[in-house]
Specification:
Layout lengths: L2 H27 L13 E2 L5 E6 L20 E3 L2 E5 L7 E9 L4 E9 L18 E7 L14 E6 L4 E4 L5 E3 L4 E8 L2 E8 L23 E10 L8 E4 L19 E6 L1
Parallel strand pairs: 1-3, 2-5, 2-15
Antiparallel strand pairs: 3-5, 4-14, 5-6, 6-12, 7-8, 7-13, 8-9, 9-10, 11-12, 13-14, 13-15
C-alpha cells in the first residue's frame, strides 16, 4: 500500500472509532425520565372530594416513577384546595394525585411541584407536621366519627424520610411504617410520591402484633382525603392544600373526625 493511501486509511479508521465512541458515551449518559410533568394533562377537581379508583391487574411497583400501566389509564385529581395559609403561586406549590387498587393495597401516586422541600423530621418526631409531608386521611368502613384517641380512622403523615406517622390511642406520636410503603423521587422542583397502603379497621391495636389488613373488593367505599403540608423554610407549615373544598372548621378537623373526609369508590 502506498504511504499516502496508508495515511488516509488510518485517518478514516480513527474518525470512525471516534464517532463510535462518542455515540456510546452519549447513550451511557442518557437516563429515562421518571417524572413526566405534562401540564397539558387534564386534572379533575372534586369539590366534594369523592373519587374513584380503578383496579390494577398486576401489583404496582413502588419505585416513585409511576411507570405501571394502571397509571396510564387513571385520572389526575387536584389537591389544590387551600385549607390553611395564604394563596400560593403555581411555581411554589402545585399538587395532583392518582388512585388505583388491588385486593391488598390502595395505591396512590402523588406529583408535587414545590420550590423548596423542607425535611419533615428535621427537628425530631415531635415536629412531624411542621415540615413538608403528604397526609392521608383514611376511614376503612366510611363510618365517620371521632378518631383523635382511637383508630376509628387514620391521619397518616407521610414524611420526606418515608415514615407513616399518626397518633396512638394514648395520643403518642408513633410510626406506622408497616401500613404504607412509599418511594419519593425528584426531578428539579417536581417530586413524585408513590405509595402502597394497607387498610386497617377500627379494631387496630397499637400494642398488638396480630393486626391484619383488610382485603379490598370491587364496589367497596372508604372515607378518604389527601393533603400536602408545605413549609418553605420557616418553623412551621405555611400552607395546607387538600383534595376537597371543605374539611371542617377552618379546614383543620381531619385529624379529629372522619366526618369531614371525602371518599373513594373502588371499581373494576
Amino acid at each position: 500500500m502506498k504511504p499516502g493511501v496508508l495515511i488516509l486509511f488510518i485517518l478514516l479508521l480513527c474518525s470512525c472509532n471516534k464517532n463510535k465512541t462518542s455515540n456510546t458515551e452519549s447513550n451511557l449518559t442518557k437516563t429515562p425520565n421518571c417524572i413526566v410533568n405534562d401540564q397539558s394533562d387534564a386534572i379533575i377537581s372534586k369539590d366534594d372530594g369523592d373519587f374513584k379508583a380503578l383496579k390494577a391487574n398486576t401489583p404496582v411497583i413502588i419505585d416513585g416513577c409511576g411507570n405501571d400501566s394502571i397509571w396510564n389509564i387513571t385520572n389526575w385529581y387536584s389537591m389544590n384546595y387551600k385549607w390553611m395559609g395564604s394563596d400560593v403561586d403555581f411555581a411554589d406549590y402545585h399538587g395532583k394525585f392518582k388512585l388505583a387498587w388491588d385486593n391488598n393495597y390502595l395505591y396512590v401516586l402523588v406529583e408535587i411541584i414545590d420550590d423548596y422541600l423542607n425535611p419533615t423530621l428535621e427537628n425530631g418526631l415531635e415536629n412531624y407536621w411542621k415540615g413538608d409531608y403528604v397526609e392521608l386521611f383514611i376511614d376503612e368502613d366510611k363510618s365517620g366519627g371521632n378518631h383523635k384517641l382511637n383508630h376509628q380512622a387514620f391521619a397518616y403523615h407521610v414524611s420526606t424520610e418515608g415514615h407513616a406517622i399518626d397518633k396512638s390511642a394514648n395520643e403518642k406520636t408513633i410510626f406506622l411504617d408497616d401500613h404504607i410503603n412509599v418511594k419519593r423521587i425528584q426531578e428539579g422542583h417536581t417530586y413524585s410520591w408513590e405509595m402502597a397502603i394497607k387498610l386497617f379497621d377500627k379494631t387496630f391495636d397499637d400494642n398488638s402484633t396480630s393486626n391484619r389488613p383488610l382485603k379490598i373488593t370491587n364496589q367497596k367505599s372508604i372515607g378518604f382525603s389527601i393533603a400536602y403540608g408545605d413549609n418553605d423554610g420557616k418553623n412551621s407549615r405555611e400552607n395546607f392544600m387538600g383534595s376537597k373544598r371543605h374539611h371542617g372548621t377552618n379546614n383543620d378537623d381531619g385529624y379529629i373526625t372522619a366526618d369531614v373526609f371525602g371518599s373513594i369508590l373502588f371499581i373494576e
